[in-house]
Design goal:
- The protein is built from 16 helices and 16 strands.
- It has 436 residues and is α/β, with parallel strands linked by helices.
- The strands form 3 sheets. Strands 3-2-1-4-13-14-15-16 form an 8-stranded mixed sheet.
- Helix 12 packs across helix 13 (338-344) and helix 13 packs across helix 15.
Length: 436
């Protein structure tokens, strides 16, 4: 039987079924989908392929899903470090954005971000930024899977002047890409403190009509919660619940300020929580109670946030930080094991984005979004358990090969759809503009 691609690997970690690691296994890819997983000895007998990869020191995992980022902000990486969130936003990031954000800024910044993410094993990301049309165009060209955020914020920007314009442009982007195989959309109101109740109500109605997710920063800091209580007499979660926004359609990002009753309510409503541990730590925003959320049955996924606050788009590093933080916060070394952590960075993210039928695990019939991690180095030796080794000792520099929808976008650490030297030149050009 002929297929397009055969990948022979030392290990395959499919995420589904749970706690499964296949040794000396292969993946057969036909068109853009996984045709079969089977022992390598059988694969060599049953299949011929146009392309065959021998990855005998590698583990194959589902492509990582970065459930929250601001891709174009790679151009602001390191611009304003070691500051509290509101100082960082009000006095540094927002002024820089007002001065520099343009279609060219978003295009160039997103290209750099996509290259960085692919080189780290990320095959899908959920974005929130201005000029989502540019983000979509970059990803379509680069072969990157994306959920572009249809941004809304209650002040004029280079993208739109008012709520009506934001929403009009949002629907236009959605219509342009609604049948694209790699580009999906989600409404992305920035936060309860930057978007009016009236605008949030409109987004709730439109999201139901278009059947797309809602992606919002929420309960990020103690200041945000205190401000809401002062202004409305309620915590932000209660305000959004009363507006109808808390449902299985919603991705609530950060969630560092939670009470147990709120955790229970999130589980009941089916809200997805996006955990951004490194950004939360760097901005001293607070600690997301991941162990308690998982115990309550909340679907928790992982995001890097933007490179301006992280300062990288490294999901392997983010997984390790998430696992270690959860153990420390809970005082329980078992509360977030390696398998659960990988699931948060893959299948849970897919579920939150409404894509779990097509991505998030290595399973027959799903899209062939795959990352290969080389575990043959001294830093990985001795190797008793490959999944735990990836989470607790792995590095994104060990990602050797990546496929998205069956197309190889990283081959032995080399990008196949983006030009690495050109991206470095773009970064230098923007650095010179912005630092002056």
């Amino acid at each position: 039987m002929n297929v397009d691609t055969l990948i022979h690997a030392r290990w395959i970690i499919p995420v589904e079924p749970k706690n499964t690691v296949y040794e000396n296994y292969s993946i057969a890819i036909k068109d853009d989908k996984i045709s079969r997983l089977l022992p390598t000895v059988d694969a060599r007998k049953k299949y011929t392929a146009t392309t065959v990869h021998e990855l005998r020191q590698h583990a194959l995992i589902p492509g990582l899903i970065n459930a929250h980022t601001h891709a174009a902000m790679t151009l602001l990486r390191g611009l304003a470090d070691d500051l509290p969130l509101m100082d960082w936003l009000n006095h540094h990031i927002w002024p820089a954005e007002q001065k520099f954000v343009s279609p060219a800024f978003v295009k160039d910044g997103t290209e750099i971000a996509v290259a960085e993410m692919i080189r780290g094993g990320i095959t899908c990301f959920n974005d929130m930024y201005f000029f989502p049309d540019q983000t979509a165009e970059v990803c379509a060209h680069a072969g990157m899977r994306v959920v572009v955020g249809l941004i809304l914020i209650d002040f004029p920007t280079a993208w739109a002047k008012d709520a009506d314009t934001y929403l009009l442009k949002a629907e236009a982007v959605h219509d342009t890409y609604r049948h694209h195989p790699l580009v999906n959309t989600a409404f992305a109101p920035h936060a309860p403190y930057t978007v009016s109740d009236e605008s949030l109500k409109r987004i709730h109605v439109l999201a139901e009509e278009l059947d797309i997710p809602i992606h919002i920063h929420l309960h990020e800091t103690a200041f945000e919660v205190a401000q809401s209580i002062e202004r409305h007499g309620k915590r932000p979660l209660q305000c959004l619940t009363e507006l109808g926004l808390m449902s299985a359609r919603t991705l609530a990002v950060h969630m560092t300020q939670l009470q147990q009753t709120e955790i229970d309510e999130l589980a009941r409503q089916g809200v997805h929580v996006v955990h951004c541990p490194e950004s939360n730590l760097k901005l001293a925003s607070g600690l997301c109670p991941v162990g308690a959320l998982v115990k309550a049955g909340v679907n928790v996924c992982i995001g890097t946030d933007g490179a301006a606050s992280n300062n990288d788009l490294d999901m392997i590093g983010e997984m390790r930080m998430a696992a270690l933080l959860a153990k420390g916060i809970a005082g329980d070394s078992t509360c977030l094991d390696a398998h659960t952590t990988l699931k948060m960075a893959t299948l849970n993210g897919a579920k939150a984005l409404g894509l779990n039928e097509s991505i998030g695990s290595l399973k027959k019939g799903k899209q062939a979004d795959i990352a290969a991690i080389n575990l043959g180095s001294l830093e990985m030796a001795p190797l008793y358990e490959p999944l735990a080794q990836i989470i607790y000792a792995g590095s994104r520099s060990q990602v050797s090969d990546v496929w998205i929808a069956g197309k190889q976008v990283l081959q032995n650490r080399l990008l196949t759809t983006l030009a690495y030297p050109k991206l470095l030149d773009q970064a230098r050009k923007w650095q010179e503009q912005i630092k002056t």
